[in-house]
Amino acid sequence: MTVMRTRLAVAPEIGAINIDAGRTGLAVTNNGSGGQGEAGTMQMDRLARYLVIDDLGEERPWPSPRILGQLHCTGADFDPLDYIVRNLGYVLIVERPDFVRVRLRPMLVSSRTVAALYYRLAECRPRRTAISWMGETWHDEVCGDSRTLFRRLTEILHGSMRSAPPEPFIATPRSMETVLAPGGHPFAPLLRGWLKGSWHDDILAAVRAHGLWDRAMVAERDGDTGQFIFRHSGGSLLLYGSSWAEKAVGRRLADQPDPVYGKWIADGCAAVDEKKSARCELVHAAITRPDGEVQRWRYERLMLPCRTADGRHLVLTVSARDPGPGR
User: Fold this and answer.
1) Which long-range contacts (CB under 8 A, 24 or more apart) does 84-88 make?
2) pTM for the model
3) Residue 90 in contact with residue 52, Cβ under 8 Å?
4) What is the C-alpha separation between 252 and 237, in angstroms, rounded?
5) Are 83 and 107 in contact (CB under 8 A)?
6) Exposed, middle or buried by CB within 10 Å (0-12, 13-18, 19+), for 137?
7) DSSP letter string over 239-294?
8) How many CB atoms lie within 10 A of CB 295?
9) Calpha distance 158→209 (Å, rounded)
10) Nearest 5°: phi and psi at 247?
11) Tens digits of residue pLDDT in 224-268
């Protein structure tokens, strides 16, 4: 088996997220519309300091040439700062003397981001604070001192895992640096191998060697119909119970107990295969089980396209549950 050596998808795809990325600005002052500016752009306070915490938990001053370059949005016709907070789980901190405002979308922030946010707030210890956070709509709250801010942030983060998502399936792009950064991410060996094309003859053997087989799904694209077929479904993927893994092999991806979720997964595999690019995403999914119960899952997934020596198209997906920030 040979492995395609292709590029990574760096720029997030707005259409894949199903969240409007443009037309909503990000103002520091509250104008009664969740911080939306009239022109749909950021209203910068020249006396304030702006910091962004990314999905790796790294602080960067805003505007950040590095983030703008990574997202290929320099000169974009939408507000990049609003986009990364709303769609990528970044956190914005606006600091003035003795005052801090935090802006975030709790459902999408990573545990690393939350840890870095708490550390930053512990350093500056503002006397007055405020939060702007996005649920179904934007909410603006005045919190008082730093201790009250910590308590309210914790409540919001825990509550985000219990509230209903605005869409049944949301995939938030994660930087590949999240996987490759030091710290022992379980997907790192697999991604490095894919990038180097150094898997010898068998990609599946490499997955087993790195202890990821039970977390893996392998789908093959039918050359005639274009449909994706299950070739493997790991035993640790318990969306539909432990018996589903054996039943899945040979079925179409869309033929799952929740067919809507199955089609969404198949569409994602098709996009990865056609673009020949890897994806790392944080997924929120509301899945209907065989007994009719709707269960919410939050997990991180790495999707890698490859082709066999005889030209067959495969997509390997490795997943790991993420309990969410504040857990």
Assistant:
1) 84/52, 84/54, 85/26, 85/134, 86/19, 86/21, 86/24, 86/134, 87/12, 87/14, 87/17, 87/19, 87/21, 87/172, 88/12, 88/54, 88/55, 88/172, 88/173
2) 0.61
3) yes
4) 17
5) no
6) exposed
7) SS-TTHHHHHTTSBTT-SSSHHHHHHHHHHHHHHHHHT-BEEEEEEEEEE-TTS-E
8) 12
9) 36
10) -75, -25
11) 899 999 998 887 777 777 677 778 888 998 888 888 999 999 999
Place of tokens 């991806």: 253
Cα separation, 293 vs 53, whole angstroms: 36
Q: With CA atoms as reference, report the closest residue to 88 among 14, 162, 169.
A: 14
Please state the φ and ψ torsions of residue 15, each to the nearest 5 degrees: -65, -30
Token pair in block for residue 52 = 């962004």
Token digits of residue 267: 């569409």
Query: Over 27-54, what HEC string results?
Result: ECCCCCCCCCCCCCCCECCCCCEEEEEC
For 147-182, the DSSP string reads HHHHHHHHHHHHHHTTSPPSSSEEEEE--HHHHHST
Phi, psi for 253 (deg, rounded to 5): -60, -35
Beta-carbon neighbour count of residue 220 at 10 Å? 18
Whether residue 97 is preceded by a cis peptide bond, meaning omega within 30 degrees of 0, is no
Instruction: Quickly tell me which residue has 């996009």 as its tokens.
Output: 271
**pLDDT exceeds 80 at position 283:** yes
Q: In what order do the strands lie in the sheet with 59-61?
A: 59-61, 49-53, 91-96, 99-104, 128-134, 138-144
Q: What's the full length of the chain, in residues? A: 327
* Residue 31 pLDDT > 60: no
Q: Measured between alpha carbons, how far apart are the two ends of the chain, in Å?
A: 41
Say if residues 245 and 257 touch (Cβ distance below 8 Å).
Answer: no
